[in-house]
Structure formats: C-alpha cells, structure tokens
Design goal:
- With 86 residues, the chain is of the alpha+beta class.
- The chain is built from two helices and four strands; from the N terminus they run βαββαβ.
- A four-stranded antiparallel beta sheet has the order 2-3-1-4, covered by helices on one side.
- A hairpin with a 2-residue loop joins strand 2 and strand 3.
- The longest helix is centred in the first third of the chain and has 13 residues.
- The radius of gyration is 12 Å and the shape is globular.
Length: 86
C-alpha cells in the first residue's frame, strides 16, 4: 500500500476534477487498486488530496503513477508518502 499526497496549484483548484482524473489514471493500471481519496486541510483554505493505492511492490514502486498524476491539470506537486506491505 502506498500513500501519495497531491498538492493543487491553489485553493481555487477544483479537487473533484483532479480526483476524477486520478481515478482515470488508476483505471489504466490493472494491478493498481485505488483504496481511497481524501481531502486534507493544509492551511489558508488550501487542501491536498491524500490517495491510498494498493499495488504490487515490484516494477519501480510508485514512480510511474506519480509521474502520471503530476501531468494532471491543476496539480502543483506529487509527494510520495508512506509505503508498506500488506
């Protein structure tokens, strides 16, 4: 399982649209399961999206899917978080 934080470009960024695009990206990876997407407050009206993915622990980890998340319109930064075996 891997936790990934998506930082939007600003507080006005549509997080719902980003979440929909994340689901689309994950759907293209048959061995990756989207466990959850949650909005997390950062401060000053800014929120991030915390994504939990369940995926095999081979093939370079989360690098490839993180790169795809980074190409989504409105995404400023993609931060890998905790990775654990389940």
């Amino acid at each position: 399982a891997a936790v990934i934080r998506i930082m939007p470009e600003g507080p006005e960024t549509n997080l719902t649209k980003i979440a929909e695009e994340i689901m689309h990206v994950v759907s293209k990876h048959p061995h990756v399961k989207l466990n959850s997407i949650q909005e997390k407050p950062i401060g000053f009206g800014l929120k991030s999206l915390e994504i939990i993915l369940v995926m095999p622990d081979s093939g370079g980890g989360t690098d490839k899917i993180e790169a795809e998340f980074g190409k989504i319109e409105g995404v400023e930064n993609v931060e890998p978080g905790e990775v654990t075996l389940i």
